[in-house]
Amino acid sequence: MDPGGTQITMREAMVSSSELPGSNLGLVLIAVSQVCYSCMNLVVVLLDEREGKNAPGKGPGGEPAMGALQIVAAECFVIWLACTALMLYARTEHIIMGPPGVRGVLLARGICGWLSTLLLYVSLEMLPIAEMTSISFLAPLVTGVLAAITIGEPFTLREKIAGVSSLFGVTLIARPAFLFGRGEESDVPSAPGDTPPIDGIPELPLPDVGGLDEHSLGVIIALVAVLFIAGAWVSLRAIGHRASTYHSIAYFSGVSWVASLLTMAALREPLVVPQSPLSIFLLSGIGLFSLCAQVFQTLGLQREKAGRAAVMSYLQILFATFFQVVLLGTPLEALSILGSVLILANGAWVASAKANDDDAVAVH
Q1: From the CB of residue 49, how many other CB atoms can be counted at a distance below 10 Å?
Q2: What is the number of structural domains in the chain?
Q3: Are residues 47 and 189 in contact, defined by beta-carbon separation less than 8 angstroms?
Q4: Which segment of 66-80, 159-173, 273-287, 308-322 scores lowest on mean pLDDT?
Q5: Has residue 5 been placed in a domain?
Q6: Cα separation of 150 and 54, whole Å?
Q7: Which domain holds residue 221?
Q8: In the structure, what pLDDT confidence band is assigned to residue 343 with cuts at 50, 70 and 90?
Q9: Residue 17 lies in a domain
Q10: Which of 93, 109, 208, 287 has a CA-to-CA distance to 157 between 20 and 30 Å?
Q11: Which positions, given as ranges, span the membrane (predicted)?
């Protein structure tokens, strides 16, 4: 119950974009979106075990494997259809193009989301997944700074400290080889963004940059992906209430499934039709969890400034670690426990802050 006596329910969150002072509803919605992203990651792992390049009977000498681009295309097509249907049902205006005056920002959100996904896949060809994950989790800090510079949102001292501390927690969980050595590297199937990195990545043509080895180039590409992740989040904040939740999601999913299919055609990657009902069910589940994640993330960013919301995205790796231990049987290391506690504690610390805290100092 809020101070004014109005009960805050999830239904109110889904149908109203009004601010509820002191409720931290935006942070709750962001946290729920991270649960959905982690569930999506889990389903991707299960689908990859059945249809990916390392699945029985797939890959060289066997049937064509389902690649990452096809999964992204199928996932985003499901999301686009669902958003379009919901807007038709609600008789929303400007379903395809979006409201006038905000179409450019909507397009920027879609392009940033797609490019961040593509560049993360490219970086995975050159970096271990733990290193790519650690780099990609710079995104919450970059988001706070970018939001302060571009749309004037304050990035408080509390959010800076929590962001750096949470990034340290991510590093303890991922344990990248360049810090911990090859024997300590952890497999972390999670990263902030719109779609999950997976093992079945396509062999994309890589740029030839003189003087840079493959690892250094992979780090640079991952850092550029971080900028696009931050750009997608800041674009959502800039859109705000000028477009509906489903306009924002439809733009991202529409750009992504079209771009994915065009990239597949350019690379001559085959389109694999799942043969088993379970594979079809898992592919549909990816789209469903991704849709829910996108809805809750967009609703949360309509209510919460980018810096605070971005810090909560660190919870995704916490949920992913939980699923790995409980459902996939991955042993939990002591450093992973410490990292998880750090992330959870910092998320709670940020959520406990008031909007007008005295530590609200903007980044210049």
Answers
A1: 13
A2: 1
A3: no
A4: 308-322
A5: no
A6: 44
A7: 22-56+65-351
A8: confident
A9: no
A10: 109
A11: 25-47, 67-90, 102-123, 129-149, 216-236, 248-267, 279-299, 311-328, 334-351
Residues 6+ apart with CB under 8 A from 48: 54, 55, 198, 199, 200
Contact, 133 vs 317, CB < 8 A?
Answer: yes
Residue 277 has which token pair? 């009902």
Q: Report residue 317 as tokens.
A: 């790796």
In the numeric block, which tokens belong to residue 179? 């810090």
Q: How many residues does the chain have?
A: 364
Q: Cα separation of 78 and 73, whole Å?
A: 9
Residue type, 352: S
The answer as to whether 4 is a domain residue is: no
User: Could you tell me if residue 359 is inside a domain?
Assistant: no
Whole-number average pLDDT of the chain: 75
Yes or no: say if 166 and 120 are a contact pair by the CB < 8 Å rule. Answer: no
Rounded to whole angstroms, the Cα distance separating 136 from 167 reads 10
CA distances from 190 to 83, 153, 294, 300, 363 (A): 25, 27, 16, 20, 29
What is residue 107's predicted lDDT score, i.e. its pLDDT? 93
